Amino acid sequence: MYKWVISAILFFGIYSGQAQEDAEEDEETREWSSEGKFQILFNQSAFNKEWTGGGTSSIAGNATLDYDFNYRKDDITWGTKILANYGLTRTEASDYFRKTSDRLEINSTVGKQLKESYWFYSFFTNFRTQIDKGYQYANNPDTGEESRTEFTTFLSPAYLQFGPGIMWKKNEDFFFNIAPSTARFIFVDARFTSSENYEDGRYFGISKGESTRFEWGASLTGYGKFEIIENVVMENTLSLYSNYLENADNVDLDYLLNLEMGVNSFLTTNLIFQAIYDDNAVGAFQIREVFGLGFNIEF
């Protein structure tokens, strides 16, 4: 559990200082509000045949849909975020486009305020999956030809978790939720676990021939968004989960950073960094980083 504690201290310690400097929310009663953003992030590199310094031409694109709608009245708050993200890259050395990101996620938390404070009794729900098929790639050592094998697909895997807890919420841009009794279901397509040579747990922790895994544990989620300097906004999302039923010290972690540097109302330069640790998927950190020019539409 020490990983969980250290990660939480680092995350919330950094941003609590910033949150204390924020102005107080408008005291008028506020009910429904919503906002959304669609963004396309593009990066590209190219080399002609005379280029002697080495390099491989590539092109990459990443599309993101981020939509929030919130309800606040009296001592009740309800926030929901829908996030869809999909990215592809292609290099001249590869026969296929490869995914750089693929995520469909819905987060929803309802809370009832404890007197006049930033604390709320809460109940949260999180659903996460991917949009498109995912592949494992290999090269034939004799011919050099590239091949691919389907490894994941829509709703395989899919994660559903929910549970009661307590939330600290300064405003819509800074909050965290602790849920010490969280149920989590992992869903997969049974065809990935039904081969004769399949070993129990190899595919996202699922037993042979099964398509569902149940876990019960503790969850901590947090969100922090603030302006570092004018036109430079940092958005952070953190999710931690510990399964009481098996290897409770192996805390699943999902951290996403989006640093947005505004050029104008339509153009930004973005740095996206994500770190994932889930020993049911891969017993190591999964890291991705994307940097490029973004085209934005807000609504």
The average pLDDT is: 88
Radius of gyration: 21 Å
Assign the structural class, choosing from mainly alpha, mainly beta, alpha/beta, alpha+beta, or little secondary structure. Answer: mainly beta
Uncertain segments: 1-28
Strands across the major sheet, in which order? 1-2-3-4-5-8-9-10-11-12-13-14
Task: Based on Cα principal axes, name the global outline.
Answer: flat
Features of this protein?
DUF3078 domain-containing protein, two-stranded antiparallel sheet, disordered N terminus, flat, mainly beta, DUF3078, twelve-stranded antiparallel beta barrel, 299 residues, Outer membrane phospholipase (ompla), Chain C
Task: Provide a descriptive summary of the structure in words.
- With 299 residues, the chain is mainly beta.
- It has a single domain (2-22, 36-47, 55-298), classed as Outer membrane phospholipase (ompla), Chain C (Beta Barrel).
- Helix content is 7%, strand content 62%.
- It is built from one helix and 14 strands, in the order H-E-E-E-E-E-E-E-E-E-E-E-E-E-E.
- The strands form two sheets. A twelve-stranded antiparallel barrel has the order 1-2-3-4-5-8-9-10-11-12-13-14. A two-stranded antiparallel ribbon has the order 6-7.
- The longest helix is centred in the first third of the chain and has 20 residues, at 2-21.
- The chain starts with a helix and ends with a strand.
- InterPro entries: DUF3078.
- This is DUF3078 domain-containing protein.
- It comes from Salinimicrobium marinum.
